[in-house]
Amino acid sequence: MTTRSDCEFRDQADPLAPLRDQFALPEATIYLDGNSLGARPKATSERLQHLLEQEWGHDLIQSWNTAGWIHLPHRIGNKIARLVGARDNDLVVADSTSVNLYKVLTAAARIQRARSPQRRVIVSERSNFPTDLYIAEGLCEELGWTLRLLEAEEIEANLGPEVAVLMLTQVNYRTGRMFDMAAMTATAHGAGVLTVWDLAHSAGAVPVDLTGSDADFAIGCGYKYLNGGPGAPAFVWVHPRHAGEFSQPLSGWMGHIAPFEFSPHYRPAEGVARYLCGTPPILAMAALECGVDTVLAAEPYGGMAALRAKSIELTELFAQLVEQRCAGHGLAVVSPGDASQRGSQVCLTRTEGGYAIVQALIARGVIGDFRAGDERTPDILRFGFTPLYTRYVDVWDAVEHLREVMVSDEWQRPEFNRRRAVT
């Protein structure tokens, strides 16, 4: 059986261990919620301070040129492209995940409406992240289309001639289950269906190959495994074959072919640049670039392949320790046991007290989060593992705290059962 000393030894031998020094992590805290909000890079404070004092404070509006503010969407986009298997200038940073999803879903719908007007259905996983479903639902109301929700195992058999778009999140936010992007995309294309992938729980956590998988569209957020800060800008990718075939619905001035021409009529920029809309948020962009750089810092150590290998070890260790040390307390691991089907998180269920258990852990300095279930799905205790800064000994200590919370019934205390606005 694994001991704490075993975990300490693994940390000492971990070639990725130096990457933890990039982050400002509070002492006595085990942070297992990077799948919701990444930890703050140390470089972010200095970068933002320089931007505030020098670029904005002293150089003022000149910094659009002298500091390259105008190029940030593309510069950071090309950095993220290295993490998700995209080519230079096929991915840009812009807006939020929800806004970008509306753009690409609309573009995909317009393409299919021109090619195959009988296709009027968007298919997605029933347990997809709610904002994705809400955006798709709203677009379907606009178009007079149908949003069809299926269980993951039902999708491949239900891509009929009426389906226009398959919209999936590669790693499910509730369970950590991961789709095989290449295989699912090939199946969709074989049925004449375009694919839209949400990489919110993938980018910076698992190897992604958008180009190799032949996906059509992808979006993702910057504040989880990319460590860009709360509400960081999102990104959008379009396969080059669609670059000149669509017009996205939010035709803002930054997506114009010549924004400073100030023409009264819109002419879309070439390629993915037309997916830009309004003026980019420079402070947030600068913070995001610092976060992306922390992931790129892993390249000399083996890059995403090395991060993925450690992620698998961390998640498997956590699942094994929970099953060994917390047996008899009603906790069950619901994330896939097969690493090829699991992202960088492990999710637990319990018929009672899930929210309170997470709150009791947080009070002990073990930060995870809780996602409520419904009539179809159970409550979820979520734990995310960011190999840039999560240690093996953190996993051991987190499970020990969980065991103590369960053995002592600490979670039943009233203060842990009072719901907060954010869970």
Given the C-alpha coordinates, what overall shape results? globular
Q: Which residue ranges are poorly predicted, with pLDDT under 50 across at least 5 consecutive positions?
A: none
What's the pLDDT, averaged over the residues? 96
**CATH architecture designation of the largest domain:** 3-Layer(aba) Sandwich
Structure summary, number of beta strands: 13
CATH class of the largest domain: Alpha Beta
The percent range for helix content is 25-40%
Radius of gyration, in Å, reads: 22 Å
Order of helices and strands: HEHHHEHEHEEHEHEEHHEEHEEEH
Measured by DSSP, the beta-strand proportion falls in 5-15%
Structural class by SSE content: alpha/beta
Distance between the termini: 33 Å
Main β sheet profile: 7 strands, mixed
- Looking at this structure, what is the CATH superfamily of the largest domain? Type I PLP-dependent aspartate aminotransferase-like (Major domain)
Strand sequence of the main sheet, in spatial order? 2-8-7-6-5-3-4
- From the 3D structure, determine the CATH topology of the largest domain: Aspartate Aminotransferase, domain 2
Count of helix runs: 12
- Overall structural domain count: 2
Modified residues (N6-(pyridoxal phosphate)lysine): 224
Subunit structure: Homodimer.
Keywords: Hydrolase, Pyridine nucleotide biosynthesis, Pyridoxal phosphate
Organism: Caldimonas mangrovi
Characterise this structure.
This protein has two domains: 4-40 and 303-416, Aspartate Aminotransferase, domain 1 (Alpha-Beta Complex), CATH 3.90.1150; 68-296, 3-Layer(aba) Sandwich (Aspartate Aminotransferase, domain 2), CATH 3.40.640. It is built from twelve helices and 13 strands. The protein has 423 residues and is α/β, with parallel strands linked by helices. The relative contact order is 0.16. A hairpin with an 8-residue loop joins β12 and β13 (380-384). α4 packs parallel to α9 (282-296) and α10 runs parallel beside α12. The mean pLDDT is 96. Helix content is 36%, strand content 12%. It has a seven-stranded mixed beta sheet with strand order 2-8-7-6-5-3-4, with helices on both faces. It has a four-stranded antiparallel beta sheet with strand order 9-10-13-12, covered by helices on one side. This is Kynureninase. Pfam families: KYNU_C. Keywords: Hydrolase, Pyridine nucleotide biosynthesis, Pyridoxal phosphate. Homodimer. Pyridoxal 5'-phosphate binds at residues 97-98, 129-132, 169, 198, 201, 223, 253, 279.
